[in-house]
Amino acid sequence: MTGWARLDSIYAGRWDKYFPKPVKIPVLSFMEKDLEGVSHWYDLQKGQYIQGLIAKEGNERRVYVVTIEPELEDAHIHSRWPRIVQKGERSRIHQFNM
Question: Which one, out of 25, 32, 56, 92, has a CA that is 20 to 30 A from the CA of 49?
Fold first, then answer.
């Protein structure tokens, strides 16, 4: 069981009680479905990752995909979009950057 974590909610501190840690999720591509249920595939380039968040509650840990607002050209696909980060970007928990 997992899901999404909006970046603005992370910055607002809503995830603090779960001791969030940023991670890079290595994938070759991802898929989003539009409002009509049509699948749209997006390839990542070498050195790109989907940003994830590890949330901890007790002994349980889950990974959530960090999402942002989509670019204008993708806004018709979905209201949230996976945050793509580059290899070499540094993690800073307080600012949740990668």
Answer: 56
DSSP codes, 2-41:
--EEEHHHHHTTTTGGG--EEEEE--SEEEEE-TT--EEE
- Provide the whole-model pTM: 0.80
Q: Which two tokens stand for residue 98?
A: 């990668």
List Cα–Cα distances, 3 to 12, 35, 89, in angstroms: 18, 18, 23
pLDDT in single tens digits along all 98 residues of the chain:
678 999 999 999 999 999 999 999 999 999 988 888 899 899 999 999 999 999 999 999 999 999 998 676 666 666 688 999 998 766 544 445 54
Neighbours of 71 (CB within 10 A): 9
Separation between Cα atoms, residue 74 and residue 45, nearest integer Å? 18
